[in-house]
Design goal:
- By secondary structure, this protein is an alpha+beta fold.
- The protein contains 20 helices and 12 strands.
- A hairpin with a 3-residue loop joins strand 2 and strand 3.
- Helix 10 runs antiparallel to helix 15, helix 11 runs antiparallel to helix 12 and helix 12 packs across helix 13.
- The chain is elongated, with a radius of gyration of 34 Å.
Length: 521
């Protein structure tokens, strides 16, 4: 019998205690090693997640995307979290498909392979043959994932209450984002939409299968597939890697799991197929425009432009962004220069996100996933292969599209013709006129830098007045010492005049020292 969510929570507590995280639950039965091996927190966390199963290992990989929030050593360790998922039994898969499609497997398919060709943490794929000898690929979502997702919530809430102030991220928030991430990856309707969108792209170099709608639901989808397929060679993966990088940066479309099993070679025709386009994400157009603005600022080395463009991509920038500007300036200085093509996309991602983390900013979760996908797509081409030049060309194409006057005009036209905007603008103008009539409008001007200028003028005026007083004291004491005939004399000079002259000289010397120390001599 499968575990219930409550039993799963208990198992999470036991596994966490075994790897030194029992202090979170504060139980005598679950002793933890809170202060032991502080340098191996990432390793112990990865091992505990891998022991809990593929869904939790995928949670670890999801957290590793957030290099803008967690230290790089922990992110690198969690990024290595891998668990070989066991396929769901054929009897269970058979019952699931028959329940989804409303018919028996024998009536639906002429042939159906019991052993899946790809097993992921959320889905698995089977080859089949439809009536008419049409080859197909059937993708179904895995069972048991929902139980794991339900068990994560109470553990995350407990961790937030006990350790919220000591963690670099909010456990409840990151688990909520992961649940949305997992739900999206299991949505077959969105997979069908992405498949149709990729098929309509003119410059996409991979063949995309059509969807057999009569054999598809929201939790089970059937794609066409080549009749005779073969695994890809090394040169094919180079082309796939380049294509995926271009797709992500020009269209905002990227795979959550770019496994090699998703790509096949049409043996007689020689075409490259994206045979399994499920678990695909599409970045919002406005957020993609923000990414284009960031890339444009990076290309010209404009740190201020990067900081201004981050909110357009849905990212958070602190009010005091001086640290962020300093870190970004240092990162751009390291990555730029004549040897910028020598860097890999992984180096660019690591340095860029580390600068954002040190500067106190925070990326949008989908933008962080996009950055991680670019690295995975680069690795798909093989060791030693960099895609920085391909990414730069795709970035220029993306920037050109969003800077195109035709696009700007069409975007403005769409904003203007929106019924809500047309209905709301007259109301806003009327409200403004009413406030003007009633005298309720208050206008304030804020002059940036004016206070600093006034303080500098005050310092200058004070020094000038002080210098005039010293000069008057020197002149007066000199006249007193020269023209006074009576009174006490010292070497023929009036003592009062001499004292005044020495005092004025000391004050003048102190004024000179103050000006020199200010560096404004």
């Amino acid at each position: 019998m499968p575990e219930s969510p409550a039993r799963r929570v208990g198992r999470i507590a036991r596994v966490g205690a075994r790897y030194g995280f029992g202090f979170v639950f504060r139980s005598r039965l679950l002793p933890g090693r809170r202060r032991e091996e502080p340098g191996r927190v990432g390793t112990r966390l990865r091992l505990s997640l891998e022991e809990l199963g593929p869904t939790f290992a995928e949670l670890g990989r999801f957290i590793s995307f957030r290099r803008d929030l967690i230290p790089p050593d922990i992110a690198a360790e969690l990024g290595r979290a891998r668990v070989l998922a066991k396929p769901i039994g054929f009897a269970e898969a058979r019952a699931y498909i028959e329940r989804e499609l409303g018919n028996t497997l024998e009536r639906l398919f002429i042939e159906f392979e019991e052993i899946p060709v790809r097993i992921g943490p959320f889905t698995q794929s089977h080859r089949a043959v439809l009536p008419g000898r049409r080859p197909a690929l059937v993708v179904v979502i895995r069972t048991g994932v929902r139980r794991d997702l339900l068990a994560m919530r109470p553990v995350a809430d407990l961790t937030r209450r006990r350790l919220g102030d000591q963690l670099p991220l909010d456990p409840s928030e990151i688990v909520a984002e992961f649940i949305a991430h997992a739900t999206h990856r299991r949505d077959m309707f969105f997979a069908a939409q992405i498949s149709r969108r990729l098929g309509e792209l003119e410059d996409f170099r991979l063949l995309v299968p059509d969807v057999y709608r009569d054999y598809s639901t929201g939790r089970c989808i059937t794609f066409e597939t080549p009749a005779d397929s073969a695994p890809l060679e090394e040169e094919h993966y180079l082309k796939v890697s380049e294509t995926l990088v271009r797709l992500a940066l020009t269209e905002g479309v990227f795979l959550a799991d770019p496994a090699e099993e998703r790509f096949v070679l049409d043996f007689p025709a020689g075409g490259l197929w994206l045979a399994d386009p499920t678990e695909t994400f599409g970045l919002d157009s406005e957020r993609l425009r923000g990414v284009a603005e960031i890339l444009a600022a990076v290309r010209r080395g404009d740190v201020d432009g990067v900081v201004r463009a981050l909110p357009l991509a849905g990212s958070f920038v602190p009010h005091d962004d001086s640290d962020l500007r300093r870190e970004l300036r240092e990162a751009l200085g390291v990555l730029g220069g004549p040897l910028w093509r020598e860097h890999s996309l992984e180096e660019v991602r690591d340095r860029g996100l580390e600068a954002i983390r040190r500067g106190g900013a925070r990326l949008h979760v989908e933008v962080a996933q996009l950055a991680d996908f670019l690295v995975e797509a680069e690795k798909l081409g093989g060791e030693g292969q960099t895609r920085i030049a391909t990414a730069a060309e795709a970035a220029e194409a993306l920037i050109s599209r969003y800077r195109n006057p035709a696009y700007v005009a069409s975007r403005l036209a769409r904003r203007v013709v929106q019924p809500d905007a047309l209905a709301d603008y007259p109301r806003q103008v009327h409200a403004l006129l009413e406030e003007l009539k009633d005298g309720e409008v208050e206008v304030r001007f804020r002059h940036a830098g004016l206070d600093e200028l006034i303080s500098k003028v005050d310092i200058l005026a004070n020094r000038l007045v002080f210098a005039l007083l010293i000069a008057a004291l020197i002149i007066g004491s000199s006249m007193l010492g020269i023209f006074t005939e009576g009174g006490l004399k010292f070497f023929g000079v009036s003592v009062f005049g001499l004292i005044g002259f020495v005092f004025a000289a000391i004050l003048g010397l102190l004024l000179l020292i103050g000006i020199i120390r200010s560096g404004r001599l």
